């Protein structure tokens, strides 16, 4: 398993397997596997939509996002997004999804209603992981190759600041109170 996400109540857990090219869906109430769904090549980031209707999966080698209907457990759409999509985060209202595109040094924005790309934000080298404030106003993107964090205003889609960090690649998480952003640097221990 590569990446994992869960519903807010913890009853459904999803995980990607980059070896099997599948997304696994688990029911934690009954402690069982309810589905293995074939997605694109080398799936990495996986996120459940805030309304818990969909799962979005970033497929690095296929250059796509697989959209899975969580109710009927099928892939309903593949969206071509660019070279090496890595990870995903939804806006808190679920109307947009942000995807890091490592191979093209950018973040794309997808409208979740139309499944169309509505914006691209040029970033530093190797955008890897990302997180968003709970009000949806600021997006934080860790850049593995340039070892910095880009802070993006989600209204203007502009980078407002870059902060240098330790050697990547990086995990990143915004605290629930929006007062801190935690960044791990695997290259610097």
Structure explained in plain terms:
The strands form five sheets. The protein has a four-stranded antiparallel β-sheet, with no helix packed on it. A four-stranded antiparallel β-sheet has the order 5-6-7-8, with no helix packed on it. With 189 residues, it is an all-beta fold.
Average pLDDT for all residues: 95
Order of helices and strands: EEEEEEEEEEEEEEEEEE
Contiguous runs where pLDDT drops below 50 for at least 5 residues? none
**Structural class category:** mainly beta
From the spread of the alpha carbons, the general shape counts as: globular
Radius of gyration: 16 Å
What's the helix count? 0
Helix/strand layout:
Layout: E1 4-6, E2 12-17, E3 22-27, E4 32-38, E5 43-48, E6 54-59, E7 64-69, E8 74-80, E9 85-90, E10 96-101, E11 106-111, E12 116-122, E13 127-132, E14 138-143, E15 148-153, E16 158-164, E17 170-174, E18 181-185
Antiparallel strand pairs: 1-2, 2-3, 3-4, 5-6, 6-7, 7-8, 9-10, 10-11, 11-12, 13-14, 14-15, 15-16, 17-18
């Amino acid at each position: 398993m590569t990446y994992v996400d869960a519903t807010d109540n913890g009853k459904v857990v999803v995980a990607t397997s980059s070896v099997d090219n599948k997304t696994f869906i688990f029911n934690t109430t009954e402690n069982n596997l309810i589905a293995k769904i074939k997605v694109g090549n080398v799936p990495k980031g996986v996120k459940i939509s805030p309304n818990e209707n969909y799962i979005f999966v970033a497929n690095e080698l296929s250059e796509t996002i697989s959209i899975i209907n969580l109710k009927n457990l099928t892939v309903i759409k593949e969206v071509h997004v660019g070279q090496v999509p890595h990870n995903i985060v939804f806006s808190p209202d679920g109307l947009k999804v942000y995807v890091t595109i490592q191979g093209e040094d950018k973040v794309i924005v997808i409208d979740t209603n139309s499944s169309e790309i509505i914006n691209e934000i040029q970033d530093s080298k190797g955008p890897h992981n990302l997180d968003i404030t709970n009000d949806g106003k600021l997006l934080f993107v860790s850049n593995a190759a340039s070892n910095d964090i880009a802070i993006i205003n989600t209204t203007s889609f502009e980078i407002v600041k870059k902060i240098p960090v330790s050697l990547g690649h990086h995990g990143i998480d915004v605290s629930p109170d929006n007062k801190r952003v935690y960044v791990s640097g695997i290259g610097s221990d």
